[in-house]
């Protein structure tokens, strides 16, 4: 744990969990059964029977470096009490999860100048890759909450360097492909950097918005053989049902280990870095996580870009994140 102290890593203790959990007679909450760590190390995680490690990321440098809105730093604080106060029962036993804590990375940017933000995003890449690598080394499945979609890079890289082939696949539900040029790191090019550096093999996207991806971006996707189904094809022209689109893109990535990326920008009217009035429903997002998680090849879940601090009802954003985490854990029951 000591090596992360200067990076503002906050370990969650059993006492922290108890204070956030509203105990009630005759009920058992996730906060009463979830596991915590004595220190952040492979050895401490190996001592736990939990299969999943939940980690919070407090940063919005990546979105700001992509000319987006601040706010993604606030997702973890909104998520945590909602998650801990879900019921631990026959459907979801909290002891399956270990809650590691969170890391506050916004201090890496000392100005809003674009070059400074992009340099800070690169520093975040290095730190998160190291942290996530520790989780993978312990043979646990990371569930990463908060921050910008720039952190897809670290999620992919950490999983890839722990895979025999040195690369993994990825499925993403997102209005944007986040495959922008290699112009300095930000939330819009995590996948293109991961592809260029050899960590990302096959990439598939569900719900791409036709009006918010440039022709240059689409050409880059074609060149790299990225598979995608657009939002308009699913919901406007109704050429394909939503679940059929998810299954189509899963067939692309499910020949090997793959990460699951959920950009909350995709969900209609949810406060996020690039909030949309036209997107998938909350139920669609939950279906995506369930179907994507229902394979032994799914190696992490990343929920990003949610910005509850921009919402009049931040607790509702936190509750959605809690639902998505529970859906992922439950989808893995047979694996």
UniProtKB/TrEMBL annotation:
Q: Which InterPro entries match?
A: Ureohydrolase, Ureohydrolase_dom_sf
Gene Ontology terms describing biological process: L-histidine metabolic process; putrescine biosynthetic process from arginine, via agmatine
A single GO molecular-function term is: metal ion binding
Q: Which UniProt keywords apply?
A: Histidine metabolism, Hydrolase, Manganese, Metal-binding
Whether Metal-binding counts among this entry's keywords is yes
Recorded hits in SUPFAM superfamilies, A to Z, give:
Arginase/deacetylase
Renumbered to this chain, the signal peptide range is none
Keyword Hydrolase part of the UniProt annotation: yes
Superkingdom to which the source organism belongs: Bacteria
Family the UniProt entry places it in: Belongs to the arginase family.
The protein here is known as: Arginase
Question: What is the protein's species of origin?
Answer: Acidiluteibacter ferrifornacis
Q: What is the lineage of its organism?
A: Bacteria, Pseudomonadati, Bacteroidota, Flavobacteriia, Flavobacteriales
């Amino acid at each position: 744990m000591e090596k992360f102290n200067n990076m503002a890593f906050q370990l969650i203790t059993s006492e922290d969990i108890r204070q956030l959990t509203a105990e009630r007679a005759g009920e058992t909450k996730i906060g009463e059964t979830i596991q915590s760590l004595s220190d952040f190390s492979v050895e401490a995680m190996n001592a736990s029977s939990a299969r999943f490690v939940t980690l919070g990321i407090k940063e919005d440098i990546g979105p700001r470096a992509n000319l987006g809105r601040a706010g993604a730093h606030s997702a973890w604080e909104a998520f945590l009490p909602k998650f801990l106060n879900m019921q631990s029962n026959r459907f979801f036993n909290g002891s399956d999860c270990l809650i590691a804590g969170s890391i506050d990375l916004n201090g890496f940017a000392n100005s809003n100048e674009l070059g400074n933000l992009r340099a800070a995003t690169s520093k975040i890449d290095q730190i998160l890759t190291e942290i996530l690598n520790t989780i993978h080394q312990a043979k646990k499945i990371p569930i990463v909450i908060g921050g910008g979609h720039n952190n897809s890079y670290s999620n992919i890289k950490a999983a890839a360097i722990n895979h025999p082939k040195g690369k993994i696949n990825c499925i993403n539900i997102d209005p944007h492909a986040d495959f922008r040029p290699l112009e300095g790191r930000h939330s819009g090019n995590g996948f293109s950097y991961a592809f260029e550096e050899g960590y990302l093999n096959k990439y598939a996207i569900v719900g791409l918005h036709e009006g918010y991806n440039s022709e240059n971006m689409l050409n880059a996707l074609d060149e790299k053989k990225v598979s995608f189904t657009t939002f308009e094809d699913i919901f406007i022209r109704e050429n394909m049902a939503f679940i059929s689109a998810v299954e189509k893109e899963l067939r692309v990535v499910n020949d090997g280990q793959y990460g699951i990326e959920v950009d909350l920008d995709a969900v209609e009217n949810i406060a996020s870095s690039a909030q949309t009035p036209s997107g998938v429903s909350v139920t669609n997002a939950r279906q995506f996580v369930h179907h994507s998680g229902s394979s032994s090849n799914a190696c992490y879940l990343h929920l990003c870009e949610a910005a509850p601090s921009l919402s009049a009802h931040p607790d509702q954003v936190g509750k959605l994140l809690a639902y998505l985490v529970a859906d992922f854990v439950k989808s893995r029951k047979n694996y």
